[in-house]
Amino acid sequence: YPYNLDFDYGALAQLQHFSINNLGDPFIESNYGVHSRQFEVGVLDWFARLWEIEKNDYWGYITNCGTEGNLHGILVGREVFPDGILYASRESHYSVFKAARMYRMECVKVDTLISGEIDCADFRAKLLANKGKPAIINVNIGTTVKGAVDDLDLVIQTLEGCGFSRDRFYIHCDGALFGLMMPFVKRAPKVSFKKPIGSVSVSGHKFVGCPMPCGVQITRMEHVNALSSNVEYLASRDATIMGSRNGHAPIFLWYTLNRKGYNGFAKEVQKCLRNAHYLKDQLRAAGIGAMLNELSSTVVFERPRDEDFVRRWQLACEGNIAHVVVMPSVSIEKLDVFLNELVKNRSTWYQEQQPPCIAADIGKENCACPLHK
Amino acid sequence: YPYNLDFDYGALAQLQHFSINNLGDPFIESNYGVHSRQFEVGVLDWFARLWEIEKNDYWGYITNCGTEGNLHGILVGREVFPDGILYASRESHYSVFKAARMYRMECVKVDTLISGEIDCADFRAKLLANKGKPAIINVNIGTTVKGAVDDLDLVIQTLEGCGFSRDRFYIHCDGALFGLMMPFVKRAPKVSFKKPIGSVSVSGHKFVGCPMPCGVQITRMEHVNALSSNVEYLASRDATIMGSRNGHAPIFLWYTLNRKGYNGFAKEVQKCLRNAHYLKDQLRAAGIGAMLNELSSTVVFERPRDEDFVRRWQLACEGNIAHVVVMPSVSIEKLDVFLNELVKNRSTWYQEQQPPCIAADIGKENCACPLHK
């Protein structure tokens, strides 16, 4: 991942002289003194406003990574519906399936469209086959490989259309990378607690650029009360997955959110989307199969044939495709260097052979193989 | 906790300019480039030597905290024995009981002795009542509140005495704080993979003094193969609890282990034990009930009556007792300031009233109430 590293390190690096540890519930004062819980709560309030939930109605914490957010959200869902079935699209992050195994939950994988979005026709069929049990659904706000955004409204419609009333389903939104970008994208469907969702998580070290892995998890207060138990020696409450939590991360997040503000993020998101479109268009112009989901800055394209090239550019690959996640630190100049190198190398890879067909991965209209171009 | 902060920050603080992220399995090269896996493996090798397991026979990783180590160790145990019962003493860390709930495991709480150690008579009775199912045991190498070290050899004897052969039990050693100190304590029972144990975890931010929460988890290679699944887009394997992991922590740990070495740690452990004895003796000399387990640097004593005093000294309290964990950064001078302040304040707390009896918590011989002194 091309991270977004432009902190004011002069001041913030000094923080490393202190061991800062957030233990237990961020909203309950505990007896451990060197913490950053005021910053943590400040960051959580910011996200609560973004996702439209009142201060007294939410609970949350700053996690160690996106996986912890998913583990927490799905655990809350299971505690709300102990016999619920977990539904998640095949292109969900692997931590979702890990959670199902850890928590001993029945898990139903739902098919995806070519775009990577959940296929709500298949979702409907699988819901109807399991009407007897409540549904716990992982909704992807940007899948890992294709950056596909599941249609939250259609997921809710499908549930209600299959006879699942609001007290019979729980939705966790995995916003890993894109949960923080989407609010700034025009026409994007809104992630909001005004809709019947139970929790949302995002990563803090991707788009926000926090230099240590971290994430934000927000859920409804009513749900977390069922989950938590009191820990006397901490004078706190145990509602988190992890115990000790990195105390520097909330300070970095708080600083960035306040320095950039909504407008700063909106500008960066626009830049990412613009540059992603540029990359996709240039790939296609060079005769290389490529796809870019409308709401995403993740460009999916034909997997480069040379593993050295893949390693040098740190491309994440799956089957016949690779992807580039265009973050604020990725400039047009950098994309041009990448494109030139790819095009130059590629001309040597396919002298005697044809480039592969990747229509099954990105659709016929995006494929540039001899058959589809 | 009085942490042990004496890194060479001049050089190491520079690391904060880089976003370092360890994804997936530390022993498998992945496609994400900015990592510190060489350091991670170096640290793991150090602990593998300490706990006597061959390089090719172990698997492990650097966790985000002690809780993650327990969550991992107990999950490995459950995957080895899916219908196993989890046994843990009442004074085990709360993350152990959280794991049982998360993983939907049957959990049997075992009584403790006054010292805080597991009561193997009660353990025996509970094992015999559940002979039909394999046993997964959490053994405490230093409990959270009293610093009590469960007798690993007696636990193994009890298991074998109850007819549990080695293919019917799994032992996870929670070494949170003391797992790293005990190897340097004379007469301490040894934690070693030459004994039939399955996993050991320790915290890295306590005795080692890493400035961000972290821990080390080591298990047997044969066990982790059952747990893991491959993650193609990372070109790695998913055998950890968390996804992205802090890449700075392994560098800090590696640096400290190499700079201090075995001899450095041995000296610091001796200092901690000496100072803990000093604190306990001074408390008793001042007529204050206090206990110190033989293998521990955790001094347990009468809970101060004034909550301001508790907060100012950040004392962790449970019921009628409080504790001080004597770490290398705690000097005799600091202990004297604490003792003087406690004795001065306490004389005002008990002018008209008698100090409470805490014999039930720390034993008659350690209590200093009017009845027992």
From TrEMBL, chains A, B:
Modified residues (N6-(pyridoxal phosphate)lysine): 206
Keywords associated with the record: Decarboxylase, Lyase, Pyridoxal phosphate
Cited InterPro entries: Group_II_Decarboxylase, PyrdxlP-dep_de-COase, PyrdxlP-dep_Trfase, PyrdxlP-dep_Trfase_major, PyrdxlP-dep_Trfase_small, Pyridoxal-P_BS
Source taxon at top rank: Eukaryota
GO biological process, alphabetically ordered: carboxylic acid metabolic process
Lineage of origin: Eukaryota, Viridiplantae, Streptophyta, Embryophyta, Tracheophyta
Pfam families xref list: Pyridoxal_deC
GO molecular function: carboxy-lyase activity; pyridoxal phosphate binding
Catalytically driven reaction(s): L-serine + H(+) = ethanolamine + CO2
Family designation: Belongs to the group II decarboxylase family.
NCBIfam families documented for this protein: PRK02769.1
Cofactor(s) this protein cannot do without: pyridoxal 5'-phosphate
The protein's name in its UniProt record: Serine decarboxylase
